[in-house]
Amino acid sequence: MSEAAVIVYSEKKKAVLRRHPWVFSGAIKKVAGEPADGDIVTVRDEEGEFLARGYWNSHSAIRVRLLSWNQDEPLDERFWRERLQRAIQGRHVQNRLAEQGKPVAYRLVNAENDGLPGLVVDRYGDWLVIQALTLGIEVRKPLIVALLNELLAPVGIFERSDVDVRAKEGLPNRCGLLTGQEPPELIEIDENGRRFLVDVRGGHKTGFYLDQRENREIVGDWFRWDEYAAQREVLNAFAYTGGFAVYALGGLVRRVINVDSSAEALRLARRNIALNGYAINEEDFVEGDVFSVLRYWREEGRTFDLIILDPPKFAHSARQVESAARGYKDINLLACQLLKPGGMLVTFSCSGAISADLFQKIVFSAALDARCEAQIIRWLTQASDHPVALTFPEGAYLKGLLCRVWR
User: Fold this and answer.
1) So what's the pLDDT on residue 49?
2) Please, what sign has the CA dihedral across residues 259, 260, 263, 267?
3) 44 φ/ψ angles, rounded to the nearest 5 degrees
4) Do 370 and 341 have their domain in common?
5) What angle do CA 129, 135, 137 make, to 5 degrees?
6) How many domains does the chain have?
7) CB 130 within 8 A of CB 106
8) Would 45 be classed as within a structural domain?
9) CA separation for the pair 284, 220 (Å, rounded)
10) Which one is catalytic: 336, 350, 372, 403?
11) What's residue 316's pLDDT?
């Protein structure tokens, strides 16, 4: 039986021709045939000309996730194997470290940006952790798991498909072992010579913020060249399990204060800091709402030499951009007011709906309201194992600024 055809309006086909991997419901004029959710469909224009092929989901606002623009390319097992191989080979630096026996952690497959919409695969030492974010990937999960076992022979593959986006695909959350051995309660990884314990079963995302690896190193390097590092006091807000703190302490700063709303995250932060040989001071771990804690310290007149803001996603959709912008402005305003003159602000947004341009304007507005002058020293983004397809600008979700602030 021939594939069902999805006919897009002529004025909407430009995005498909430009190889953007999403076809939204509003772009579709009609569907010829009755595809089951998860089936491969052909996308055509109103004249019947072939445009692309991908998998279908009637429950999602993104009706088709495109896989190929080659009419003669069969989307069979060979296709999925070759796409996985291409993604894995693209991480050759990290792969070499793994081959040398280091328990490294990195992203192996970055969904649309690796031509595999809806699939995320992260490596933590000898284990793989996957996220099936879409119905099309959920249907093909057994094949993908079999191919990953064939290509990489991990000790085990664990699933962390417990994300909000699955509900938009009509899917329940799933979390658990898919094949091989169950991962330990905590997996120890090596990141640029630093050691971290990671909870792949219940930690944020797949256990660790792998996308911040290179930014953490930038923070550590900043202090290595600072002759006054031993006098510096750092605030690590939204600290999670202490990633930025370990790097800052490696730069020999006097003190890093970690603030997070999760007692469990802070417990693991303590362990990670101790694991790297640094002394634990209980006063340096503050459990509480970051906004409230920073307001309290502002009223106390407390100041810091460097403040790191790595908050969770504030905007999950375009409808939340306005409220998210207020949140980002508020937290950056507080940070500006808490910095010593000439202090450094490292600030991030991981909200895909907040563009880099908008985020920079938000930070500018916060500095203006705080009556500060600020310089951008460096623009920051996600680590190199989280590539961004040129056809998919939405893939550049992590935006960051390293700023010097004067008051």
Assistant:
1) 97
2) negative
3) -130, 160
4) yes
5) 45
6) 3
7) no
8) yes
9) 18
10) 350
11) 83
User: Residue 1 pLDDT more than 60?
Assistant: no
Question: Residue 125 sits in which domain range?
Answer: 77-185
Is the domain of 368 the same as that of 292?
A: yes
**Same domain (yes/no): 337, 392:** yes
- pLDDT (average), residues 283-289: 98
Strands ordered across the beta sheet of 174-180? 105-110, 119-124, 127-132, 156-161, 174-180
242 and 327 fall within a common domain: yes
pLDDT single digits (tens) 225-274 = 888 888 999 999 999 999 999 999 998 899 999 999 999 999 999 999 99
Task: For residues 12 and 153, state if they share a domain.
Answer: no
> Does 286 map to a domain?
yes
- 350 a catalytic residue: yes
Q: Compute the Cα dihedral for 124, 127, 129, 135 and give only its sign.
A: positive
Given this model, what pLDDT does residue 407 score?
83
Q: What is the pTM of this model?
A: 0.95
Mean pLDDT of 8-29: 97
Residue 97 placed within a domain: yes
